[in-house]
Amino acid sequence: MNINEYISSGILELYVTGDLSQAERLEVEALAAKHPEIRKELTAIEEAMEKYAMLHAVEPPASTLNTILNKIEQTQQQEVKGKIVQMQPQPKSNILRLLAYAASILLFLSVATNIYYFNKYKTVSSELADIREDNTFMAGEMETLKANYQNLESEVNIVKNPEFIAITMKGLPISPASTSVVYWDKANGDLYVNANNLPAPGPGKQYQLWALKDGKPIDAGVFDINGNIQQMKHISEADAFAVTLEPVGGSVAPTLELLYVYAGV
User: Fold this and answer.
1) Mean pLDDT of all residues in the chain?
2) Rounded to whole angstroms, how far apart are CA atoms 216 and 210?
């Protein structure tokens, strides 16, 4: 049994306010006798409710006390053989006892009322916390959607930009079905790659893009398989582009036996 989960379940508050069945109350009492943590939490809840009730106690109007005293006096009148027996003046001690009794009733009503509103307050606080949590989640979702939209908008601008030429690299014998596309702006050297159809690299491996000029490879950077168009290094001149599988971080020269896709410009 997880004591912390049991304590935070709210059953101890229901025990203190008397909102449990007899079987549930017996269960709480048995666990409190067995686990000091539960017994300590019960004591803390009782003290908190008592402080709350005393702090927010509402003084009833004077008419309420008079009504209670009248009810008490009526119970002391007895009918004997159809005659009303005149009550003798009550001793001072009896009057004080009645006042104490009336005050106890008023205190009980005040405490009960405050406990009721205290429970209502806890319920509303819990619902408010849930609403705040939902709002936080929704805000996070909106930020994610906004980022995705901005990324998609950026990719569309690249694809539609007439300054970029799209070069489709096709699969070589190691992976004939593979394809990838590079978007290259010859004027300023901006280069992007969309690796939309390459097999997932194994552990410790990463794909690397190469530009070839006069048969010499030029490192254009490494990239991940994430479905996005990724910006690569600036390339001012190239006769062709190719992708190889290299160790994570890339290599200074391409591993030709792991050449996956290639295309001339």
Assistant:
1) 80
2) 10
